[in-house]
């Protein structure tokens, strides 16, 4: 074959050689120099067509001795390539199969299926060689290949889907003329040669068992190593501050043996930065989670006072990383606005929450929540039934009074005849949320989310004893939505408490006369009535502003 003289002849040679690339080993490396100089000729002519390349001589762009050697190497490869051979119809054809244990795509198959799949896939891929009048011989080291032909008659314990799969494979093999012969695994040299190729480099995986360490600690505040502030520590800081300067706005409390202001709140000196930060931690990261600024500041300001308390708490909450994941955000809801209450016990939400079944058999919780105050009660039950919903509502009404506005979803326990007759008897209105719109009853859905978040850190969602503790704890702490007021205060007028109240406890009892008690009680009830009216108005206004 004469050497090409133009770029068009070189292009024709390279394209013709490409038809034989499957028969030439290392074809890409051998022909890469010719492709590179051909690309230079195309860029020089500004076109890739044969007509334009016909006018470009190879000698014009440096075709020399090296290029001639590359061309000769390609010609040598073409002359020595393996020619296509045709099977002799008089010879026998043998097919040897073996399943690979470590192949990633077959790890989920049973051993019988692996061996059967190797046979079926080999027959499909070599169909052009195996479809012949004389047939072929199939050699395998798996003796139980009768599964392929009639799996139901051999093993009755085989899974139905597994038997169907093998039966479909046997129908695929029915188009071939073959004879199956079994050979021992150690004698199957050709099958093992492919299935165990380079098996020495396969890393052996050692089975390991890990034990999960369960630490019964929901919050770092319950750690035994945590040191809470004490009377002695506060007194030392106050004594050190009084030695430096005289404080005229505070006075000495003989009962508590500590310096307080005119309202009875304990004074924390300005230089006690470490003590102030610890109080911020205890007030913010309480048992009910990482609260907002108002909810964290309220219990702290009720007991303690220092000049920069508000700014310190706002800065502390803003820098809390956990608060970013727990404070949530306002999400616009479709289908209009939800119903809102303007006073406690005016609007009641209720819903069932499903949990894993506990040791005592309970698997559901009936959640009841007051709309305005967020006051919550949880009732455990085995199944969500109308009877449970009826007794839960009845218990609420016995303790706190009848509520004439109800909100729930359209679950079967709430639309049953028993609950409906109870509603008619009380003259109440039952508002059902739109189907598949849980945000329509979002006030109680938030409680469900908080319950799950409280139980999941323990890695045990079936602890029934945690429900009473969670309910009691959720009522005691203030919410930003209520302006820092606790639900138990907004709903019942009782003062909420926090873990900070454990630091300051009464040290001695006060003696009073019987004649003093009755007038004091009457005065207290009048003050409570006025305070509750002001509190309810404040909470209603705050909620309206936040919902706007």
UniProtKB/TrEMBL annotation:
Single annotated GO MF = hydrolase activity
Q: Which UniProt keywords apply?
A: Endonuclease, Hydrolase, Nuclease, Nucleotidyltransferase, RNA-directed DNA polymerase, Transferase
What InterPro entries would the database entry show? DNA/RNA_pol_sf, Integrase_cat-core, Retrovirus_Pol_polyprotein, Rev_trsase/Diguanyl_cyclase, RNaseH-like_sf, RNaseH_sf, RT_RNaseH
The Integrase catalytic domain, residue ranges: 340-507
Question: Biological process GO annotation list?
Answer: DNA integration
Query: Out of the domains of life, which is the source?
Result: Eukaryota
PROSITE patterns tied to this protein? INTEGRASE
Transferase in keyword set:
yes
Recorded hits in PANTHER family, A to Z, give:
PROTEIN CBG26694, PROTEIN NYNRIN-LIKE
This one is known as: Integrase catalytic domain-containing protein
Species whose genome carries this gene: Phytophthora megakarya
């Amino acid at each position: 074959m004469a050497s090409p003289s133009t770029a068009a002849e070189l292009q024709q040679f390279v394209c013709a050689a490409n038809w034989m690339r499957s028969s030439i080993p290392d074809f890409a490396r051998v022909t890469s120099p010719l492709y590179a100089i051909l690309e230079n000729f195309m860029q020089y002519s500004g076109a890739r067509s044969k007509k334009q390349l016909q006018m470009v001589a190879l000698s014009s762009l440096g075709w020399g001795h090296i290029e001639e050697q590359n061309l000769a190497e390609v010609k040598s490869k073409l002359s020595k390539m393996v020619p296509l051979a045709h099977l002799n119809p008089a010879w026998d054809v043998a097919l040897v199969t073996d399943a690979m244990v470590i192949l990633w795509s077959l790890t989920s198959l049973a051993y019988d299926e692996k061996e059967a799949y190797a046979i079926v896939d080999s027959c499909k891929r070599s169909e052009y060689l195996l479809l012949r009048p004389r047939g072929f011989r199939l050699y395998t080291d798996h003796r139980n290949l009768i599964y392929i032909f009639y799996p139901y008659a051999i093993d009755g314990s085989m899974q139905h889907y597994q038997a169907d799969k093998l039966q479909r494979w046997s129908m695929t093999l029915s188009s071939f003329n073959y004879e199956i012969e079994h050979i021992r695994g150690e004698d199957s040299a050709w099958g093992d040669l492919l299935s165990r190729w380079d098996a020495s480099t396969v890393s052996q995986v050692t089975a390991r068992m890990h034990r999960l360490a369960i630490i019964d600690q929901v919050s770092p505040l319950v750690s035994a190593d945590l040191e809470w502030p004490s009377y002695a520590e506060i007194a030392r800081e106050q004594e050190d501050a009084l030695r430096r300067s005289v404080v005229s706005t505070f006075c000495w409390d003989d009962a508590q043996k500590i310096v307080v202001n005119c309202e009875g709140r304990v004074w924390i000196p300005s230089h006690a930065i470490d003590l102030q930060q610890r109080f911020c931690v205890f007030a913010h990261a309480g048992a009910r989670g990482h609260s907002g600024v108002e909810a964290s500041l309220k219990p702290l300001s009720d007991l303690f006072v220092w000049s920069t308390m508000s700014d310190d708490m706002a800065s502390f909450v803003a820098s809390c990383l956990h608060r970013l994941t727990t404070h949530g955000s306002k999400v616009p809801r479709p289908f209009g606005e939800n119903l809102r209450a303007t006073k406690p016990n005016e609007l009641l939400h209720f819903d069932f929450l499903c949990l894993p079944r506990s040791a005592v058999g309970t698997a559901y919780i009936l959640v009841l929540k007051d709309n305005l105050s967020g006051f919550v009660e949880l009732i455990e039950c085995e199944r969500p039934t109308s009877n449970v919903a009826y007794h839960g509502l009845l218990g609420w009404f016995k303790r706190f009074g009848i509520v004439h506005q109800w909100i729930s979803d359209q679950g079967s326990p709430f639309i049953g005849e028993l609950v409906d007759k109870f509603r008619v008897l009380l003259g109440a209105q039952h508002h059902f949320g739109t189907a598949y719109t849980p945000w329509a009853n979002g006030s109680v859905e938030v409680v469900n989310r908080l319950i799950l978040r409280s139980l999941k850190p323990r890695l045990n969602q079936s602890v029934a004893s945690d429900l009473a503790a969670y309910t009691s704890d959720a009522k005691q702490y203030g919410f930003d939505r209520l302006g820092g007021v606790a639900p138990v205060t907004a709903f019942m007028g009782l003062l909420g408490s926090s873990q900070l109240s454990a630091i300051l406890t009464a040290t001695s009892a006060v003696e009073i006369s019987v004649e003093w008690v009755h007038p004091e009680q009457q005065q207290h009830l009048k003050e409570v009535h006025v305070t509750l009216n002001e509190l309810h108005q404040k909470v209603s206004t705050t909620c309206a502003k936040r919902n706007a």
